[in-house]
Amino acid sequence: MALTSWEQTAAAKRQSVLNAIPEKWRIKGPIPAPTEQRDVTGPYIQQFLSPREVEITETDAVGITERTTTGQWTAVEVTEAFCHRAALAHQLVNCLHEIFFDAALETARILDDHYTKTGKPLGPLHGLPVSLKDQFHVKGVETTMGYVGWINTFQGKTNDPRYLTHESELVKELRAAGAVLYCKTSVPMTLMSGETMNNIITYTHNPKNRLLSSGGSSGGEGALIALRGSPAGFGTDIGGSIRVPASFNGLYGIRPSVGRMPYEGAANSGDGQNTVLSVVGPLSPSARGLILLFKTVLGAMPWLGDPGVLEIPWREEIVEETRKLVQGKPEGLAFGIFYDDGQVKPQPPVERAMRIAAETIKRLGHKLIKWEPPSHLTAASLANRAYNMDGGADVLQNFALSNEAIHTSVVIDASGSPQKTALEIAALNVEKREYQKQYLDYWNSTAQVTGTGRPVDAVICPVAPHAACIPGKYATIGYTAFINVLDYTSAVVPVTSADRRVDVVGKEGREYFGELDRKTEGEYDADVFDGAPAGIQLFGRRLQEEKILVLAEYLGEEFRKASA
Amino acid sequence: MALTSWEQTAAAKRQSVLNAIPEKWRIKGPIPAPTEQRDVTGPYIQQFLSPREVEITETDAVGITERTTTGQWTAVEVTEAFCHRAALAHQLVNCLHEIFFDAALETARILDDHYTKTGKPLGPLHGLPVSLKDQFHVKGVETTMGYVGWINTFQGKTNDPRYLTHESELVKELRAAGAVLYCKTSVPMTLMSGETMNNIITYTHNPKNRLLSSGGSSGGEGALIALRGSPAGFGTDIGGSIRVPASFNGLYGIRPSVGRMPYEGAANSGDGQNTVLSVVGPLSPSARGLILLFKTVLGAMPWLGDPGVLEIPWREEIVEETRKLVQGKPEGLAFGIFYDDGQVKPQPPVERAMRIAAETIKRLGHKLIKWEPPSHLTAASLANRAYNMDGGADVLQNFALSNEAIHTSVVIDASGSPQKTALEIAALNVEKREYQKQYLDYWNSTAQVTGTGRPVDAVICPVAPHAACIPGKYATIGYTAFINVLDYTSAVVPVTSADRRVDVVGKEGREYFGELDRKTEGEYDADVFDGAPAGIQLFGRRLQEEKILVLAEYLGEEFRKASA
């Protein structure tokens, strides 16, 4: 059967991305089927790389910049190694939308020249390759955001002078800090999905277990970084889109509060929906990698380039205070915890990750209290009404540009329902604020039960009911979207991986919360999920990024030791 | 003719406010007509007060707390003096919606007891009477916000348990700091007006010239503080509602950026409209009074009680930096300035205030550059579309509660136009963000011309085309609403007063920007306006409150010397 017009356009774009991979970096011969070779990280991808390339690409962002800012490694060598590995990653799991290795190498050469001439790095990210979700505009590079109708346009607009010329604020700031930009990563169409699929790159699989999803919507970032095709990158999160891929890929990621990281000049879905906002945040294999990126962007004073960014610099005093609490001074830390959201019980690997987290915290001598906040169901309802307030008009406009087919994993209502009116939206905003107030009051009230004299320092909970997920089976945003409604700070901390031997559904019957709970348990298969990473969420109040990052670093290290 | 039902309800409420004034504080005999006695401040109101009451009430907030926090003045004596003076003020210009002197004196007694027992003040505002715009809820006191339909209800809801029991966050924080709450001040129906009028208290006149308006919508605050019936109070501002009354009454006032002062638990108009937000801010006869209130509220960590407040404490380091710039270190200050908005030229008193400001700044050796930003017309259009996005549905619902008559000075569209849809609102939000970005870029670009190596430190401009205004003749929000669209920090600094001898319209013809410009000039009458205060606006970027407050204090003192 002949391809339709949009299928041809999508196929051509798909091919052009592959064509951008130099011949020398193409995988010769067939790639084994996922059933034969699930895990393509570690030894599998290393077979295509030199020992030196493996050494470079398996060093974390902090380790790399320690070397590139002191002349031990050149930007060109580091860039080439990551370009090579990113090229392999894309061939293995379809994680890239844009490849611009030539421009990256040119940047790297300029950075090396700068270092040779001045003896100094250009900035704190000198020579560090940084990957970007395909919402950020980079000069000379397209942004399709997974829409076939955006190919050859600026966000769907033909003959727009910004096409291939516009650059997002974050991109400018990363360049000024010495970062090397070299690729943009895959997203699901509409960005509203816990998986990553579109008609251009098809589906982004989980590198640790290619039977499963890499998560979404920053799924390309998650997959690429898991394969060490990038040491760190930036995604966005409106309902879990940084945290889900971080967790599914065994990475750290942070969803900061609105106004800390610059979104200015980036493409988005439902742009102008002002009730529950998407935010930018980093993903990385190390917590200190997140800190490096976060601190560097704030060092660029992004509030001078983005009117939406708050003038809150990196607060080292909060870092110091938190480190003291970590050391048990004066009275240690207190964490809230909840194991399920009362709707869908997590599958066994996530349940075990939560148990490891809880036991570790107790063993370290910190307080752990049961978290019983205002219902997260209310938050999920608020989030869904916010996402769908235009009745799908925005995404339908973008689909109509090419008439492409809509994937079923899209969680936004694309049926063209009636739009909300101004009064309805105002009522939604008031309802959201009231929920936020109730939650804040609950948070404060825990000072009565923590024993530290303070409310909880942070709360621990699952990221999703599943460790990764079977394509098409993403269950619920109930564990993540409440954070976006509250505008709280939430980091993902890796804990363990699914293990077919121990992560089995209990033999005895249990009470189910409802149909979705039963269905989600039924979809679990210890054999299929084997190897899928499972992380946990660690969240704090609004604008608590410094504290949560320090706690993520601390707990992440302890979890690693506990599950080793 | 018999009164209609809503007229009776309004009259009864009006009388109940007057009834709350103790007999001993009622003005005996007739109050002269405004044509006979325009100015009721200073000697006029002093005739009803004892010398000691005059001494207390004409001390500013900082002077008062210096004495009340050290036991020199008791809270009871200070409170009684202000209650007395506020009672007089209301009888002269209709500036109060609620009077609760008994509760205030009870609070004052408790504060005095506390001081006697502990030898310490309760907090930094110990014993300071603070007035509140009638949007804030105080236990035991109604909030009508100028709606007849809100009488005997909680925000129009009958049998709501919050009626007479609910307290706004700001109110709680003020109490905890030791403030004494004793009255709530008048607002225009809908809050959307540059004057203050409603069917309950009728019209709030300008105490310096009762032929004119006290401004709006925080017009009761402006009038009360001008009469020294309050040393400091809180208003709100969505298009100029703190700045206009501050300027019309010769006061300092600040419209901070969204998220610094707590709005939680206060009544509002068009609540949930999220595009251009109303904010809370203080008014006071002294800049240091504003600083005291602002700093005290931040000291209460309002972000723990209001999810909309940002965790940005009072930044003393910015105060220090700004003071150094004031002293010419390293290279002094640079100000932008514009004398008119290209739509309506200010009337002569405002023109002269602007000249005094400009000459003072130049004389002090600071840089002054012509401010040529992205058009403020765009901002005014954005603001109007935001205010009217529900087609007046919110205010019409509130009018319908009593069927009361709508005053013509209401600037919101109350015609029941079609509401905007979600997509239209999203487009408006995007347009606003783009405007904010253009403005920020322009601001940054002035670093090229200031000669200080930095962009301008602040910008000077009129607050309105008129010094106060003739009732029903408020011309335009073009000088104020752009600040709300940008979410910038803007303070009003008093400069001078209209003088019939010098403030005359030039004899020679001039070019007019348009019909409104011609009309506004035509409405000016040097004799009628004589005595009306004229201030200027001093604005900085978003979240620059500390800097702008320090500059307001500095320039205010210099303007005072210059116009003395």
TrEMBL record, chains A, B:
Query: What residues form the catalytic site here?
Result: 133, 217, 241
Question: What is its EC class?
Answer: hydrolase
Q: Which UniProt keywords apply?
A: Hydrolase
* E.C. code: 3.5.1.4
Instruction: Enumerate the Pfam families for this protein.
Output: Amidase
Instruction: List residues binding substrate.
Output: 191, 217, 238-241
Annotated GO MF terms: amidase activity
- Which InterPro entries would you find in this protein's record? Amidase_CS, Amidase_dom, AS_sf
Amidase domain boundaries: 77-549
Kindly state which reaction or reactions the protein catalyses: a monocarboxylic acid amide + H2O = a monocarboxylate + NH4(+)
Query: Member of which family?
Result: Belongs to the amidase family.
Tell me what this protein is called: amidase
Q: Which organism is it from?
A: Aspergillus welwitschiae
